[in-house]
Amino acid sequence: MRKVYHKIIHIAGNVITVEADDVSYNELAEVTSARGVSLAQVIRLADSKVSLQVFAGSRGISTGDQVRFLGRAMQVSSSEALLGRVFSGRGTPRDNRPEVLSDMVEIGGPSVNPAKRVIPRNMIRTNIPMIDVFNTLVESQKLPIFSIAGEPYNELLARIALQAEVDVIILGGMGIKYDDYLTMKRTLDEHGALSRTVMFIHTAADPVVECLMVPDMSLAVAEQYALEGKRVLCLLTDMTNFADALKEIAITMEQIPATRGYPGDLYSQLASRYEKAVDFDGAGSITILAVTTMPGDDVTHPVPDNTGYITEGQFYLRNGRIEPFGSLSRLKQQVNGKTRPDHRAIMDSMIRLYSDFRSTLEKQSMGFQMSAWDNKLLKYGRQFEKGMMDLSVNIPLEEALDLGWKILADCFERNEVGIKTDLIDRYWPRKN
Amino acid sequence: MAEVKNIEKIVGVNGNLMTVEFTDKVMQNEVAFAKVGDAKLKCEVIRVRGNRADLQVFESTNGLKVGDEVEFTGELLSVELGPGLLTQVYDGLQNPLNLLAEQSGFFLKRGVYLRALDRERTWVYTPIAHEGDKVVAGDRIGSVPEGIIKHYIMVPFAWKGEWTLKSVRPAGEWKIDDVMAVAVNEQGETRNITMTQFWPVKIPITNYAEKLLPEKTMITQQRTIDTFFPVAVGGTFCTPGPFGAGKTVLQHAISQHAEADVVIIAACGERAGEVVEILREFPELEDPRTGQPLMNRSIIICNTSSMPVAAREASVYTAVTLAEYYRQMGLNTLLLADSTSRWAQALREVSGRLEEIPGEEAFPAYLESLIASFYERAGLVRLRTGETGSVTIGGAVSPAGGNFEEPVTQATLKVVGAFLGLSRERSDARRYPAIHPLESWSKYRSVVARNELEVARAILRQGAEVNQMMKVIGEEGTSLDDFVVYLKSEFLDYVYLQQNTFDAIDGATDADRQRYMFEQIYKVLVGTFKLPDKDTARSYFLELRQLFTDLNYLPMDSEDFKRQEAAIAEKIAERSSANA
């Protein structure tokens, strides 16, 4: 039996400090108060003073309450029995079914040796042209969806999850609305995907420290499944809430904030989660899609900014559409050379022309006379938005490429699109 | 140095920072090992206050307890230098990652430190020095072939004073730990010289005669760089840019095509996936200059973003030390660090934990001087043998929010010789490489003539002005002459500045081809054409653009290239008023 400590000398925010010895960094403890028993985690050691973040929050904890150290770090089960289940941020069931305690693994494990990774090589088809054609999603990619409140990002997440061919879906919800949780659960259920899904859900009403655990719990499970050879898709929504929880704890611990109150290690904290995305040499893979809401639609806000530097691209979701500018899949080059010879050419030219269309639109709104070229661009832009950008479009990659040529041929002459002549000769639709 | 090991006790742990109370003496930047279970975690002293020392731990601190033992080594953080460094993949502390993978599998097990060099491998040794020779630190006593490089075995850089070689090893096949020579100094102290030596990473190697002014252009085969914003052999440059602007793709292109003898890539706090691309591709890609795999001239230092932060700080120093080592052999080395901002952030994290008074954006006040002294380790030097060697440093910078006003970018701009600023505007428009042609600058010499370059620059500048103006007064309000200038600037941008990295031919344009292409384009830039109206002008330049774009994808010695040349000449003649 481990020793019990009673001497809580400091309570602030969700952090308590207790005098104790023989405690390891990052160890778990149980805090028993009048409100019940809560888990807590060691976040600082200074002489005999041990600071812990209390999962259920410090409300109702008295200086005389007892703290019992468990001699181990946070763990999660990695058994197959997790499939179809819903858990809280600290790993307890949310679905009134029994706890799963077999095959426990520590969360937040070491990073993968880069020498054991392979170059991502499999495209994930989503049947969304803005993704498949212009910013192809690749297995083992880590990609955030930058969005603002009110945009259908959870719907997009669910749609990609359902259309992607993966073995397991892991959904980590952080600070999400209860309604959103129910909606996503129902969507997965309706499409028969619930039985291959594991959910770790922290809703906005739950204690903030549990929010911090969600990515680590989800990714620890994902990692174990991937090591068994499974292709895992991990969905995290919303990482901004995770970052805000980090900020809250850092401020409570009186750390010097870096930008806008966020701790200086925000980049490393986010990176250690996102970097769990991997294609193992000789085992499965983890693909991470995460929602990052941008406060005030500001991409230079520390959370989206740091995220952008970590992830392999980003999708901007704005006005219900995936924006062609700014959206980027860094891994697309790994796969779009193998799809069809015209894939890259279509991708580049259509975006370039769409960018010209936007400038023309500006000119038009200022009342300038439109040249013949401007009129071509205007026609093109409208067709592009309707045929490609609309999220309701649901066509495979090959159809989308053919549609691309059709739109180009409809609006321009052969030498106006800046594509190599041999490709033009091969794919330019014949006028009938 | 068989002193008794100095063992002290932990009194505090906060993130990757650990506080130790000591009774004996400790040294600033001394390496120590913290014991947790049967693992020993490497750490470094970064501050001493009273009888307490703060150490940054190069591993996860999970499980450390107050009262745990810490063993001090009396040494500074060092790397091992010797034959066999090339082709290796190391972490920030010079742990060989491939060997580590063989031992520990998929994950980086903490507390496992392996020797950087293979002690079993034999090398074909040819002696240079003779018995009785007087030598000083850095003198060459022999050489071994390492790939195509002549790897000199040198008297350890740290040795002081003059030494006499008492015995030397004859030619033959030897291992790195074999004694190549025995030396004795005036005081009668005897030391062995093996093929390897250790050097503390944070101290520059200065065993050369003098530093020279970098004047020769380092060819990177990137047209925008070599022609417009060149880098010098022994110079420094930085590539700041917001995320998604193509910093890493540009760095990869440079690492593949740059004309350097040794390329060291320091992946510092960036994505693991990007390193994997290098790891897997470099052994396959051929270096056209030597016909050997690119990997044979490369060393990769890889401390990706999820690997421990303190080792990230060490990784850039490890990389530059290796570059300096090869420079001592009379070679031109290129160090590409991606990204120095992550290194600065690592400093910020540690500084924050030390509760130091923060400077701008919470970066420590000593950030600028650290960045400056890092870039100052670049340079062209004349060695004591009369040969020259160089270290060229290129650092990617990832400014928060893409704003170049932030401290890391500003501190870097003060000390580099070329600034290749990447812009979101250009990358959004898919104009790669997204080096901004108006904001970037370089103090080094271009591959093309200066006066012609000035003309091209002027056209880019005027073109941008006309474009701005057109947004206000519209195309109809713009004069035909101005409009043609705008078309010329767009033409130059499309067919010269933009380059397709993923194409084998367009992706690498050597100096001769650059001069040739620039000449052709220059003819168009300074030419006058009979263009009656704007629509004709636009379609004429679009046609020219198409011809030149196709030319960029053709091998220079091919028949197709000649045909394309003829087609271009014809097209230029078609409307050129010079012939009229």
Structure description:
The complex is a heterodimer of chains A (432) and B (580). Chain A is an alpha/beta fold and 432 residues long. Chain A has 3 domains: 4-69, Elongation Factor Tu (Ef-tu), domain 3; 75-335, Rossmann fold (3-Layer(aba) Sandwich); 340-427, no CATH class. Chain A has helices at 129-132, 153-163, 178-190, 208-227, 239-252, 266-274, 302-310, 332-339, 343-365, 372-389, 397-411, 421-427; strands at 4-5, 8-12, 15-19, 28-33, 36-46, 49-54, 66-69, 75-77, 86-87, 104-106, 123-124, 137-138, 142-147, 168-176, 197-203, 231-237, 257-259, 262-263, 278-279, 285-293, 313-318, 321-322, 328-329. Chain B has 14 helices and 30 strands. The mean pLDDT of chain B is 93. In chain B, strand 23 and strand 24 (292-293) form a beta hairpin. In chain B, helix 11 (480-497) runs parallel beside helix 13. At the A-B interface, strand 5, strand 17, helix 6, helix 7 and helix 9 of A face strand 1, helix 1, helix 4, helix 6 and helix 10 of B. Strand 5 (36-46) of chain A pairs antiparallel with strand 1 (6-14) of chain B, so a sheet runs across the interface.
Compact description:
The complex is a heterodimer of chains A (432) and B (580). Chain A has 432 residues and is an alpha/beta fold.
Ends of chain B: how far apart?
86 Å
Work out the helix count of chain B: 14
The number of distinct structural domains of chain A comes to 3
CATH superfamily annotation of the largest domain in chain B: P-loop containing nucleotide triphosphate hydrolases
The secondary-structure class of chain A comes to: alpha/beta
Largest interface: A-B, 85 and 86 residues
